[in-house]
Amino acid sequence: MIDKRVASAAEAVADVHDGATVMIGGFGEAGSPIELIHALIDQGARGLTVVSNNTGSGDVGLAALIKHGRVAKVICSYPRTANSTVFPEMYRAGRIELELVPQGTLAERIRAGGAGIPAFYTATAVGTVLEAGKETRSFAGRTCVMEHGLTADFSLVKARRADRYGNLVYNKTARNFGPIMCTAASVSIVQVEEMVSPGEIDPEVVVTPGVFVKRVVVVPDPALESQWVREGRSYP
Amino acid sequence: MIDKRVASAAEAVADVHDGATVMIGGFGEAGSPIELIHALIDQGARGLTVVSNNTGSGDVGLAALIKHGRVAKVICSYPRTANSTVFPEMYRAGRIELELVPQGTLAERIRAGGAGIPAFYTATAVGTVLEAGKETRSFAGRTCVMEHGLTADFSLVKARRADRYGNLVYNKTARNFGPIMCTAASVSIVQVEEMVSPGEIDPEVVVTPGVFVKRVVVVPDPALESQWVREGRSYP
Amino acid sequence: MARQVARDIPDGAYVNLGIGLPELVAQYLPEGREAIYHVENGLLGMGPDPAPDAVDSELINAGKKPVTAIPGAAYFHHADSFAMIRGRHIDICVLGAMQVAMNGDLANWSTGEPDAIPAVGGAMDLVAGIRTIYVLTQHTTRDGEPKILERCTYPLTGRACVDRIYTDLAVIDVTSRGLVVRQMAPGVGFEEVQRRTGAPLFPGFAGSAA
Amino acid sequence: MARQVARDIPDGAYVNLGIGLPELVAQYLPEGREAIYHVENGLLGMGPDPAPDAVDSELINAGKKPVTAIPGAAYFHHADSFAMIRGRHIDICVLGAMQVAMNGDLANWSTGEPDAIPAVGGAMDLVAGIRTIYVLTQHTTRDGEPKILERCTYPLTGRACVDRIYTDLAVIDVTSRGLVVRQMAPGVGFEEVQRRTGAPLFPGFAGSAA
């Protein structure tokens, strides 16, 4: 029987190796799998390349992972936000590498990676400093840059609900990068608030079909990053 | 107020011009917008390029459009099926052009066209006759061909339910090419069995957001292509 | 200013509003018009600001502020959202600016200073993918320096992408013959607008001789 | 034959079954194993054949035959479906064949005759995207001609893509040292299999000296 549930966040991330590429879902705190990130901090893997839209805030979640020196490089569209101090300090100190990618190109590269597309062309970033070093080519008179698909060893994603097959539905704009990151990682690990029986998620409304999901862990009442930041908490 | 409803299939396809590129949804009869195709036959536009997975069966729907000499070219993955005689005869007689595209490449080209991606690379068809004339390039040791995004002037699509904004949900495997064809056409025209009020389709389960849809026409009880074929009917 | 932009949004338009000033546009849409607001982090059909007790941390806009969804909204993932932008499905984008050049070049993501943390977000996708780009900005910087220039000195967001600039002083079109002043704020004259602009302007408002 | 294939499908596998003979595989999956069947026209989680009164013309497989969906199935559009295939998310594909070459080349879409109507469907996507390709076929054509050859004469579906061939006579692995017979049908000897095959075979079944 197929059953992708694992008992704990710790078990779910146990095999993340040093130097792994890890996609981490979320747009700000919406969709950020904070319990999985904390489990990864506890687990101790180092030298990670993290693909994520932001770099976290305060001293919890993704920001804490970075602060603990576990991340060698981030591939990211917007590495500073309100209450984000960890990444800027590490970056200025030359202790972390940044590959800055326009948000739509980041999303499309992840989608391409998951769909077996090694490279594609886009007009985004043409004529800007982010074009530097990239091949360009004209299609119907429009200059485009070639961008490569992105894949990862692991992805950490937060969803609303799952069944044992790994079928997922999300909550509102917390969906964001989750569905495409599940497709682009060899091992996608998802925290959900609730497990349901197969069939309880209507086949018409499944957002991520289970084939893209390897492990599901239930976190019934996930922490709110912004609340922890307001309370001045840090992890661990 | 935004209201994408039009009163009839005839009105919905009235401005399809001679020589237009028209994407037509469906995988076999599932999802084939038969009433919109029949309205297009009545309307009379000629010299069309049709993008569709198949070429219809019997003497109704897409097969009838082809039989009436309206289609100059089809871009297609599987132009023959049980009960399909119209296309084979026209093709052997040299009266219609065929661009044969692997099904997944066809889908990805349509998706790319709708997403503003002019070209991408794929391993599909490498080392086969369908690679002929295409650029190849190696990524991580794997040879790929370059494929171009496909766009269209119009798309004709069948869905299950819509609201006045054009938000759509589909029925089972009749979804197939509908969502991507809506994204890739300048004017996407959708027949649905039912209109509902905005909000009756949960924002979480919308498959095609209304931005991709220009016109919606209600056909409460669409014809079944296979039944018409069994009954030996033809159109008109 | 935001009201001015709102007046130029036609009925039925799909509109993306940038972070900051542009967020204000939605509330000024004239009666009888309906526009659909696209939020690039996965919502089509943004509604008015939520009541304080209806805030949902998982329903936010690109500025990470809580928003609402109208009846008839849709949620989708990031690749689908940017397919809307990059596939030219959104009609109008209203963005802030650090600098705009007379040819429509836009700089709005980085000052290019050596110790700045570069952060681009979706700005480059928006200007490359949306046909009509409106800039909404104060006419000058806080220090009184012009933001509308012959050439941008900051790193570009996109080349020749801006169609119209709305400021506290004027509405200015970017045209093939240069920057054309379409309208001025009450009590503001063409000379003043020109004086506070770093590129030549042409008068093009109703009644002018241009 | 179909039963033989089914035995080699591990618990938890995601499997795409081609049109024709391969469709039979699902019903022979051994007790206690669960496989998820992918239907490339937009369904993950195909169930058993429908009862005659439960046929839905909008729930079909790639051969356009009515199917059912299991509890826990999902529907999706064509680009998402082929993203599963091309992104290497489906584990095993079972396909029919016109010809298979000793290096694993497969021809299963066209005889290449001048008046044939070319129709490729998803075959090229399947063999390019799915790591494990099983061919399920009669060992020879209706005329007794071998289908397993040194080189295919028909237009290829893909190069060096087949991993294993299941026929009415034998189970044959495509390996770097050639075609290795793993198993033979009851009453069939190696000599007979070789005689009806157009490429050299190596014995590799349990107990052989290979």
CATH class of chain A: Alpha Beta
Number of domains of chain C: 1
> What is the radius of gyration of chain C?
17 Å
- Element pattern of chain C in H and E: HEEEEHEEEHEEEEEHE
SS summary, helix count of chain C:
4
Largest sheet features of chain A: 8 strands, mixed
- Which percent range fits the helix content of chain A? 10-25%
Approximate helicity band of chain C:
10-25%
Low-confidence stretches of chain A: none
Distance between the termini of chain C: 24 Å
Please summarize what this structure is:
The complex is a heterotetramer, with two copies of chain A (236 residues) and two copies of chain C (210 residues). In chain A, 22% of the residues lie in helices and 26% in strands. Chain A has 236 residues and is an alpha/beta fold.
Topology:
The complex is a heterotetramer, with 2 copies of chain A (236 residues) and 2 copies of chain C (210 residues).
Chain A: H1 9-12, E1 21-24, H2 34-43, E2 48-51, H3 61-67, E3 71-76, H4 86-92, E4 97-100, H5 103-114, E5 119-122, E6 136-139, E7 142-148, E8 152-162, E9 168-169, H6 178-184, E10 185-195, E11 215-218, H7 225-230
Parallel strand pairs in A: 1-2, 1-8, 2-3, 3-4, 8-10, 10-11
Antiparallel strand pairs in A: 5-7, 6-7, 8-9
Chain C: H1 2-7, E1 14-17, E2 36-39, E3 43-46, E4 69-75, H2 78-86, E5 92-95, E6 99-101, E7 106-107, H3 123-129, E8 132-136, E9 148-149, E10 164-166, E11 170-175, E12 178-184, H4 190-195, E13 201-203
Parallel strand pairs in C: 1-2, 1-5, 5-8, 6-9, 8-10, 12-13
Antiparallel strand pairs in C: 2-3, 3-4, 6-7, 10-11, 11-12
Helix pairs in contact in C: 2-3
Describe the 3D structure:
Chain A has one domain: 3-Layer(aba) Sandwich (Glutaconate Coenzyme A-transferase), CATH 3.40.1080.10. Chain A has seven helices and eleven strands. In chain A, strands 1, 2, 3, 4, 8, 9, 10 and 11 form an eight-stranded mixed β-sheet that branches. A three-stranded antiparallel β-sheet of chain A has the order 5-7-6. In chain A, helix 2 packs parallel to helix 3 and helix 5 packs across helix 6. The longest helix of chain A has 12 residues. The radius of gyration of chain A is 18 Å and the shape is globular. The mean pLDDT of chain A is 97. Chain C is of the alpha/beta class and 210 residues long. Chain C has one domain: Glutaconate Coenzyme A-transferase (3-Layer(aba) Sandwich), CATH 3.40.1080. Chain C contains four helices and 13 strands. In chain C, helix 2 packs across helix 3. Chain C is globular, with a radius of gyration of 17 Å. The two termini of chain C are 24 Å apart. The chains are: A alpha/beta (236), C alpha/beta (210). Chains in contact: A-B, A-C, A-D, B-C, B-D. Chains A and C meet through helix 4, helix 5 and helix 6 of A and helix 2 and helix 3 of C.
